[in-house]
Amino acid sequence: MSITPCRPKWKGTMTDRARFNNQMQYKPIDRCFNMEFGYWDENFREWSIFLDNKITDNNEADIFFNFDVTRSIGGLLGMNPCFPSTVVEETPTQKIIMNSDGLLAEVPTTGHDSIPHYLKSSIVTPDDWKRCKEERFRRNDPARKIDVAAMRKTHPVNRDYPLGVWVGSMIGRIRDILTFEGLAYACFDYPEMVEDMVETHCQMVEDSLDQILPVMTDLDYAAGWEDICFKNGPIVSVDFFKNVVVPRYKRIDKKIKAAGIKLWWVDCDGDVRPILPLMMEGGINCLFPFEVNGCAHPAELLRDYGKDLRIMGGVDKIELGKGPKAIKAYLETLVPLVERGGYIPFCDHRCPPNVKVSDYLYYLDLKERMFGLKA
Question: Which residues make Cβ contacts (< 8 Å) with residue 191, sequence separation at least 6?
Fold first, then answer.
């Protein structure tokens, strides 16, 4: 389906690629990079602007709103094959499923987006992990062979958009596999098992990078995901993170730095402050999408860490739901951050459906007036 944008692309004098790289490296730009992180699934079922224009997912929404373009590449870093997804039991209000990570989970049947209630993991003991590793994390799996020549053809050197490489997760995906509670227990009951899980994930990333980086020599950023924090901090101890996770970050950082990649952002919700110095020691220098209520106003961390840190996101979704006056007041607090560089403002996670369509369009218009090309 061909998608007709509902609004013009922000005017500019630079390519999206040049703008992104300059903004993240504190160099001159024509105007702010314009992007958003996306929307809840419910938005596509409830927002009239999506329903009327048959917009069904975040990729289509990016085109529809005519945002600046980013792209990413990567290899298969996780389980293969995954566990078969099945419905184990169903009632009028909920069902119990086995998901692709091998977790038994309760999910509502109402269609409301929510985090599942996980009941049990398929991996609890070292024997469980040994079997899973042998069956689902084979380094010589043909599916992990990357067609880098096709990547090069799809993303040429003279492209006008930033292109990143996916470097996955060292501990966030392990939380998914073990569950929050399971990871907490395993760190004490089976620390060698958890470290081997981290090492295995690191090897998957290294194998992928060893295929990609010699050919894709002009990448603009590395991107990862580590949802291991909540409003009270990380779900693993700081010592565990320092001793087990950071050394693997350093191995990945060595490869991406040698390839000329200067920006490594990681998606980690919640309060990252207790482990942020360690993330940065490992090579991560950008936070995404930076949830304000789970952590702090982005100005606080940018002040504390100076130009060693970048942030993408940080527009408080709660303020977006309060209407134009609150939206304007909050965006005004971000003006100095955009002006200093190293910061791209957008909603601090998927935009929720309680935000009115009219208020969201006001927000997009206001962003352009405040951060777009100045006449």
Answer: 240
pLDDT digits (tens, 9 = 90+) for 278-292: 999 999 999 999 999
Contact 34, 67 (CB under 8 A): yes
Which segments of 166-315 does DSSP mark as H helices, in order?
Answer: 172-178, 180-189, 191-212, 238-240, 246-258, 276-282, 298-305
Alpha carbon 199 to its chain's center:
21
How many C-beta atoms lie closer than 10 Å to residue 35's C-beta? 19
Neighbours of 278 (CB within 10 A): 18
Q: Give bridge partners of residue 163 from the DSSP assignment.
A: 71
3-state SS class at 162: coil
Top-level CATH class of 16-79+122-371? alpha beta
| Phi and psi at residue 347, to the nearest 5° | -55, 140
Q: What is the pLDDT along the chain (375 residues), one digit of tens a residue?
A: 799 999 999 999 999 999 999 999 999 999 999 999 999 999 999 999 999 999 999 999 999 999 999 999 999 999 999 999 999 888 888 889 999 999 998 888 776 666 678 888 999 999 999 999 999 999 999 999 999 999 999 999 999 999 999 999 999 999 999 998 999 999 999 999 999 999 999 999 999 999 999 999 999 999 999 989 988 899 999 999 999 999 999 999 999 999 999 999 999 989 999 999 999 999 999 999 999 999 999 999 999 999 999 999 999 999 999 999 999 999 999 999 999 999 999 999 999 999 999 999 999 999 999 999 986
Whole-angstrom CA distances from 82 to 99, 170, 215, 274 are 9, 18, 29, 33
Rounded CA gap, 226 and 19, in Å? Answer: 27
Respond yes or no on whether the N-terminal peptide bond of residue 247 is cis (omega within 30° of 0).
no
Are 346 and 353 within 8 A, CB to CB?
no
Domain boundaries, the chain: 16-79+122-371, 84-121
DSSP letter for each residue of 30-94: SS-------B-HHHHHH-HHHHHTT--SHHHHHHHTTPPP-EEE----S-SSPPPPEEEEE-SSE
Whole-model pTM?
Answer: 0.94
In angstroms, how far apart are the furthest CA atoms of the chain?
Answer: 65
Residues forming beta bridges with residue 72, ordered by sequence position: 164
